[in-house]
């Protein structure tokens, strides 16, 4: 296809890739302009034909003959006018003898009668023209002020329709929508049309502002009539809509902006607290809460969640699989149900439970017998850094760093 505006050749599309014009709309507009020109030319031709036929009227030949006959009758004398009887000889003399001179002398009266008839026709034509001519300036003088008065009294909807009738993305169309919004700032269709024009002009910041205002003020009928998805997703404009609403509220009531800032800060603090806290699902084994952990960022294990244990404990099998060896630290004494035992200590590079993580944690290595598939005990040397909330209904544990704000 070839763009009708810039003549750029491209595959079939809704818009031109070079100038951005909407192809179908531009063709429709050009066709409408061509129809208007043809209609205007037809009206001019009809006006010329009407003027030539009814306003400029030449003297008919019949009137000229009547004027000549009337002049000849006046020269013939009272007898000819009154139709008085005469003798046969006199009638013959009056009809034969005087006839040549009137023929020679009747040229002047006929010319004068023709001129008088022409003058009367011209006077009649001028009188008709005077009857018609004053009406035109009067109507024009009355129409111009009324048009200006109407422009000043147009409503927002009328300004919008005036801009939409232009449909050429010109500055005049933009001014019509701006005047509509000056009368009614919440007139959503005007915001949509302005946003579309700014978008096609590549002025994306203004386009986002107008589309955000459209979403803010549009009714369900407006949203159904104007498809915002042609330009932006409403989710993308959500932040801009909230920004426009807060700016409008602060302009009306500046005091509320401080309150909203405080609320926003509190909300951000709560969101930050939610981000800091971690939730861990637990299962039960022999009456103990068992949680999953990640050891040294490579091995997964299941340990008993025990707030009564002072130190974290790993089974010997788990420690050997990680390659842990007791270090130079002295053994620790652990109190079991049966008796106290001495346990060697190894250094664990990292341990992570949910989003809670700790590095370089000393752990005791013993044979743990708390149930099948239990690899150790998570003690207070790890859990003491967090506030703990246990929800038995949904089998989860909420860990939040100590000193973090409450969500």
Structure description:
The chain is an alpha+beta fold. The protein is 54% helix and 17% strand. It has helices spanning 23-55, 61-76, 78-82, 88-96, 100-105, 107-132, 135-152, 156-166, 171-183, 188-200, 204-217, 220-225, 238-252, 254-276, 316-322, 380-383; strands at residues 278-281, 283-285, 288-295, 299-305, 313-315, 332-335, 340-343, 345-353, 356-366, 376-378, 386-391, 396-401. Strands 3-4-10-5-9-8 form a six-stranded mixed beta barrel. The chain has a three-stranded antiparallel beta sheet with strand order 1-12-11. α8 (156-166) runs antiparallel to α9, α9 runs antiparallel to α10 and α11 packs across α13 (238-252). Mean pLDDT is 76; it is low at 76-110 and 133-149.
Q: What share of the residues does DSSP label as strand, in percent? A: 15-25%
Average the pLDDT over all residues and give the rounded result.
76
Helical proportion?
40-55%
Work out the oligomeric state of the chains in this entry. single chain
Instruction: Tell me the structural class.
Output: alpha+beta
N-to-C terminal Cα separation, in Å?
60 Å
Number of strands: 12
Computed CA radius of gyration, to the nearest angstrom:
52 Å
Shape descriptor: rod-shaped
Q: What is the N-to-C succession of helices and strands?
A: HHHHHHHHHHHHHHEEEEEHEEEEEHEE
Indicate the CATH architecture of the domain at 278-401. Answer: Beta Barrel
- Major β-sheet profile: 6 strands, mixed, barrel
What is the CATH H-level superfamily of the domain at 278-401?
Acid Proteases
- Do you know the CATH topology of the domain at 278-401? Cathepsin D, subunit A, domain 1
- Name the CATH class of the domain at 278-401: Mainly Beta
- Ranges where pLDDT stays below 50 over 5 or more residues in a row are 76-110, 133-149
Number of helical segments? 16
Strand order, largest beta sheet: 3-4-10-5-9-8
């Amino acid at each position: 296809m070839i763009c009708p505006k810039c003549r750029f050749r491209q595959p079939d599309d809704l818009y031109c890739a070079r100038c951005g014009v909407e192809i179908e709309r531009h063709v429709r507009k050009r066709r409408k302009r061509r129809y208007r020109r043809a209609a205007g030319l037809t009206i001019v031709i009809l006006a010329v034909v009407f003027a030539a036929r009814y306003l400029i009227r030449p003297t008919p030949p019949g009137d000229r003959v009547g004027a000549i006959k009337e002049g000849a009758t006046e020269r013939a004398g009272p007898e000819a006018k009154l139709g008085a009887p005469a003798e046969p000889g006199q009638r013959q003399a009056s009809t034969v003898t005087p006839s040549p001179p009137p023929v020679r002398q009747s040229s002047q009266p006929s010319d004068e009668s023709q001129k008088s008839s022409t003058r009367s026709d011209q006077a009649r034509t001028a009188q008709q023209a005077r009857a018609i001519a004053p009406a035109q300036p009067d109507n024009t003088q009355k129409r111009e002020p009324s048009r200006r008065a109407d422009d000043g009294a147009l409503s927002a909807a009328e300004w919008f329709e005036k801009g939409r009738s232009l449909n050429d993305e010109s500055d005049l169309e933009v001014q019509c929508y701006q005047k509509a919004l000056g009368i009614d700032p919440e007139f959503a269709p005007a915001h949509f049309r302005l946003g579309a024009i700014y978008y096609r002009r590549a002025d994306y910041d203004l386009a986002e502002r107008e589309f955000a205002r459209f979403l803010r003020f549009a009714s369900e009928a407006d949203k159904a009539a104007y498809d915002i998805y042609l330009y932006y997703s409403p989710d993308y404009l959500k932040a801009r809509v909230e920004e426009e609403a807060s700016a409008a509220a602060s302009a009306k009531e500046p005091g509320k902006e401080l309150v909203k800032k405080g609320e926003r800060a509190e909300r951000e603090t709560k969101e930050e607290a939610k981000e800091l806290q971690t939730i861990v699902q637990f299962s039960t084994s022999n009456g103990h809460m068992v949680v999953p952990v990640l050891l040294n960022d490579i091995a997964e294990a299941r340990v008993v969640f025990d707030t009564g244990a002072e130190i974290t404990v790993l089974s010997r099998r788990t420690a050997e699989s990680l390659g842990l060896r007791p270090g130079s630290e002295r053994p620790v004494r652990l109190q079991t149900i049966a008796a106290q035992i001495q346990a060697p200590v190894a250094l664990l590079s990292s341990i992570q439970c949910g989003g809670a993580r700790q590095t370089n944690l000393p752990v005791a290595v013993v044979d743990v017998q708390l149930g099948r598939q239990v690899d150790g005990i998570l003690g207070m040397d790890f859990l003491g850094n967090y506030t703990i909330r246990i929800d038995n209904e949904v089998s989860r544990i909420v860990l939040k760093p100590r000193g973090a704000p409450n969500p």
